[in-house]
Design a protein that fits this description.
Elements lengths: L11 H9 L3 H20 L5 H20 L9 H19 L17 H24 L3 H10 L4 H8 L4 H19 L3
Amino acid sequence: MNNSLNSSVPTDREVILGILNNSEDILNKLYKGYFAMILQFILNNNGNEDDAKDVYQEAIIILYNKIKEGNFELSSKLKTYIYSVCRRIWLKKLSQNSKKAGNITDYEDVFAVEEDVDYHEEKDLQFVKMQSALDHLGEPCKTIIQDFYIQNLSMQDICEKFGYTNTDNAKTQKYKCLQRLKKIFFQP
């Protein structure tokens, strides 16, 4: 495979600094950099190219979030970390689909990443649960919560948008909405 200079894989340090600095260029190079390795692994272990893309995308998101949260310590090569995360995700998918995962063909060293993958999946589940709770909340609560916590609107903006007489009334409504959301979210 012929790698021209501008599409070459960035160093591990460049990737970490690039993600911390929101560099799209580094992310693009990272996407291209190790995909062939993951594609080869998935194709040789009961998967196809779409599977490889999905798994790789998920692994990059896990890496991205871990670096952004500031708790990423590189105790292996980034290549090994990405491969290990992809491998872990793929093994879980194979076992969920009752496909044979016994004889996995490996191409790289493997690093223990179970915790990172499980944490990512847990956050995804919580997000889906939260979205469902928001959907059950109804209006105006759903929009107030989204405007304040997701869109980062000020209480003044929310006050004007919903026609409250003052920000205290808007805050009271937001508080009531939050209490309702908690009740829905924490229902067994």
